[in-house]
Amino acid sequence: MTATTIVFDLDGTLIDTAPDLVASLNYTIAACDLEPVTFADLTHLVGQGARMMIRRAFDLRDRTLSEDQVPMLLMRFIEHYQSAMPGESKPYPGLLDALERLKLEGFILAVCTNKMESLARELLTSLDLTHHFAALTGGDSFAVRKPDPAHLVKTISLAGGDPSNAIMIGDSINDIMAAKNANLPSIAVPFGYSDVPVETLSPTRIITHFDQLTAELINELVSLAR
Length: 226
Ligand SMILES: O=C(O)COP(=O)(O)O
Ligand SMILES: [Mg+2]
Hints:
Mean pLDDT: 97
Helix content: 40-55%
Number of helices: 9
Order of helices and strands: EEHHHHEHEHEHEHEEH
Number of strands: 8
Distance between the termini: 14 Å
Largest sheet: 6 strands, parallel
Number of domains: 2
Bound molecules: 2-phosphoglycolic acid, magnesium ion
CATH architecture of the largest domain: 3-Layer(aba) Sandwich
CATH topology of the largest domain: Rossmann fold
């Protein structure tokens, strides 16, 4: 039987990227004289990639964003975000040990993020993490993205895994819904950027630290879902 695949979300799950996302977004929207956003705002803005984050910042400030401004603003965001990488972004406590441990235990590890694939790859490479993952896909890798189950299913297949023997771990509604839509169990982490308490998303389980992400837990949740 193919090994179980553990699919991780990136922003707010693997890596605490909020300070850099806020800094790059504020640099971007300053070009249009928008007031800076805060971390609390970010929980409502993040989740569907940079383009949507910019759009939502304009909505937050009751400003109209014309379509022809979008490419310039997106480029401004990407350049700023790339130039600072990894900036203040850091893996959450216990992540590195968990990745090493789970790989030794034979799990396939993958990343399914709505961040642009190139930015996600560069960020994980700058933190020396890319080598842990058999596949990494972003919000622009396919025609669809989380919460569409196809994003998750295609990521598992790319990693060499079996889409019926996998689990998704994430911090937001997109991750938990993608798992549900793909008929897979999910684990939510409460330390990320959800704008609602993660319990309200009804994940299969919640963990508060990566030390709790054990082979026993994953095997239990995957077999319960069968
Ligand atoms: O960058 C985003 O908007 C979302 O990224 P995530 O899917 O890794 O949480
Ligand atoms: Mg996330």
